[in-house]
Hints:
Elements (H helix, E strand, L loop, with lengths): L3 H24 L3 H10 L2 H27 L5 H18 L2 H15 L2 H12 L1 H27 L1 H15 L1 H12 L1
Helix pairs in contact: 2-5, 2-6, 3-4, 3-7, 6-7
Amino acid sequence: xxxxxxxxxxxxxxxxxxxxxxxxxxxxxSLEAREIASLLFTSDSFDPVFSQAAKVGTSIMKVGxxxxxxxxxxxxxxxxxxxxxxxxxxxxxxxxxxxxxYVDLLVQHFAPQELKDLAAFYRTPLGAKVLRFSSVMIAExxxxxxxxxxxxxxxxxxxxxxxxxxxxxxLRQELERQQRR
Length: 181
């Protein structure tokens, strides 16, 4: 038999789920928001989004793996790790989840008339070009940012280290003690 507190929590979570579902359904009533979201997530723009997410996700995984292995991953191993992350994410996370999220964002941040105007714009040749260019901006923009960061990597590390030492003297001392062991 279910304890009263457990039953209350189950009922509360079901009621909350129904309330959330009805609010989301009300937000998703905009045909224009759905159209814009589906246009935003064509395969040309969806792949760069996953690629960027894979870079972030694998950088975290890479640090953990390298710590466990006691060595750095080779470039080939790092590239393959990113490929696995991207492939698994694409297989598990449906594009429709991203589209639904963007529908909610669009409805929250644009008035109904603005959504109609935006959808009409994206149907024009210039609007279609802007959408195509946005995927180029993601892919080429990320590559450019990586080049810029790489060019300033040494200066950044020096500045970060100096700021870290100033801001966290106790952590610095603890790290120094661990290195001496």
